[in-house]
Automatic annotation (TrEMBL):
Transmembrane segments: none
Keyword annotations from UniProtKB, A to Z: Metal-binding, Methyltransferase, S-adenosyl-L-methionine, Transferase, Zinc
Residues annotated as binding S-adenosyl-L-methionine: F77, E107, G108, H198
UniProt xrefs under Pfam families: Methyltransf_11 (PF08241), Zn_ribbon_RlmA (PF21302)
One GO molecular-function entry: metal ion binding
Protein name according to UniProt: 23S rRNA m(1)G-748 methyltransferase
Length: 278
């Protein structure tokens, strides 16, 4: 079966550049994508492109990303998804043509859901999801082929300066200098971090709160457009308890006995929104 070429790669000029020489990646053949200087990058059977060229060590196993996807499917983060959409709809009109990057996309389900909702609501957009962990990107590409999925490093994002309208950075490491570089003037960064009560019922809670430094660093680079808190109680289904136990944030610090006694858990997230100066 012929692999789908995401529309964003057909743009002229293409916003994606070669990580070796920074030349545009603008051609496709049966063997993959090639930059203007001849460096070639294969498109995997699932549709993603590996621009990293190596397999970095990761703190998280592939099964943890599959766990995150299953939790997303149960509605575990539906409150966050809705709020992110509200913020995007408040800032942009339906006829705006947007390029949206999800930096640290993981298994991509939250980003895919957002893109699908925007498509349903007639928004014009191109989606790019990047993560350094290949199994996660493979999962993302397998489930939503209309976005461009890249195995890449957010410390050196392979996108041209000023080529992105919106950067999403959800519960993932950030590189504000790179975000500023790739955003066009007036471009929007939406970063989500754990709130002070996130997963407060678990012993892991004490390891993940305390984001004053993160918020201050955000303001230094972007100024703060607004701050939104998403907090709700999630009733845990029996099948969700095992999934929560295997989340990346909890898997190494939470005992199964502690979790099995819970009937609800607190989701508490803070969304920071800022624009690049014109």
């Amino acid at each position: 079966m012929e692999k789908m070429i995401p529309d964003v790669l057909r743009e002229n000029p293409c916003p994606v550049y070669c990580p070796v020489c920074q030349a545009s990646i603008n051609s496709n053949n049966t063997n993959g994508f090639t930059c203007l200087n001849g460096h070639q990058f294969d498109q995997a059977a699932e549709g993603f492109i590996n621009l990293l060229g190596r397999r970095p060590r990761s703190l998280f196993k592939a099964q943890y990303f599959n766990t995150s996807r299953k939790l997303m499917a149960t509605g575990f983060f539906v409150g966050l998804e809705r709020k992110l959409l509200e913020l995007l709809y408040a800032e942009y009109a339906v006829n705006d043509s947007l390029t949206i990057l999800d930096a640290g996309t993981g298994e991509g389900m939250l980003f895919s859901n957002i893109l699908l909702c925007m498509r349903w609501d007639q928004y014009r957009h191109q989606g790019i999801g990047i993560d350094h962990f290949m199994p996660a990107v493979k999962t993302a590409a397998r489930h939503f082929e209309k976005a461009l999925w890249l195995v890449a490093d957010i410390q050196k994002i392979p996108l041209k300066s000023g080529s992105v309208d919106v950067v999403l950075n959800t519960l993932a490491p950030a590189n504000y200098e790179e975000f500023l570089r790739i955003l066009q003037p007036g471009g929007l960064l939406i970063k989500t971090i754990p709130g002070p009560e996130h997963l407060k019922e678990l012993s892991v809670h004490k390891h993940i709160h305390g984001n004053d430094h993160t918020q201050e660093l955000f303001r230094q680079y972007f100024g703060q457009l607004q701050q939104v808190r998403v907090r709700f109680q999630k009733e845990l289904l029996e099948e969700e308890k095992d999934l929560v136990l295997n989340m990346p944030a909890t898997a190494v610090q939470c005992e199964e006995l502690e979790l099995q006694q819970l009937s609800t858990i607190t989701i508490d997230l803070i969304i920071l929104c800022g624009r690049k100066a014109y």
